[in-house]
Amino acid sequence: MLSHRSNEKEILDLGPGNYTAEEFTHCQKMLYRINKILGFFHGTVNVLKKGGEKAHVMDVGCGAGLFILNLSRYFPKMTFHGIDISSEAIDMANHEKSVFASDTSNVKFEKMAEPNLTFGENSVDVILATMVCHHMSNEEIIEFFKQALHTTKDKVIINDLHRNIIAYGFYRLFSPILFRNRLITYDGLISIKRGFIRQELITLLEQAGMKHYQVKWCFPFRWRVIIWKK
């Protein structure tokens, strides 16, 4: 079942007509909590600490923006730019920004008209993509790697899932009890099936022409990929 990446679509990928606004809002908030539980958030904090304190960070597929809003607490001198092709995600991100407890003057959100990165070369310091690549086909991932490296001055940080039968089994057992949201339970299982094994990531990076990169497995069942400009 998990020998190859799945092509199944997640409910979120099918668009707003397939879920309610309440489901979407609850899902986005839960996704940020899951990202913290899995270690994506604090892992990203640790990587950003090694860069310049005034870096310009772009979050691709920012969703409701909670990831970079909370990063801005750790790095108040950095500039954060969240982009997403979903209007409802950007609307929610701007709402979350307006009610956020800390200063958010260094954070902005922007809806993109198309999924491609159309920014100029070296226009940002760091690009983040957390739980984004598994939504893409292999061909789309290769193109994204190329566009991201073109856009960044320094590095690209990718956080995503390890496709693993143990992770799938645990999630299938406990997710309905813990989360009680079909966008989390149903989509989460598909996300794992659309995740990656190490060699797949390495193959995609090499097919994209990436020369300087690191693929690191992190507990529990997640990958952190860093691509450096040089």
TrEMBL record:
Lineage: Bacteria, Pseudomonadati, Pseudomonadota, Gammaproteobacteria, Moraxellales
Entry protein name: Methyltransferase domain-containing protein
BP terms from Gene Ontology: methylation
InterPro entries: Diverse_substrate_MTase, Methyltransf_25, SAM-dependent_MTases_sf
Gene Ontology molecular function terms on file: methyltransferase activity
Keywords assigned by UniProt, alphabetized: Methyltransferase, Transferase
PANTHER family linked to this entry: METHYLTRANSF_11 DOMAIN-CONTAINING PROTEIN (PTHR44942), METHYLTRANSFERASE TYPE 11 DOMAIN-CONTAINING PROTEIN (PTHR44942:SF4)
Domain of life: Bacteria
Transmembrane stretches, start-end: none
All residue ranges annotated as the Methyltransferase domain in the record: 57-153
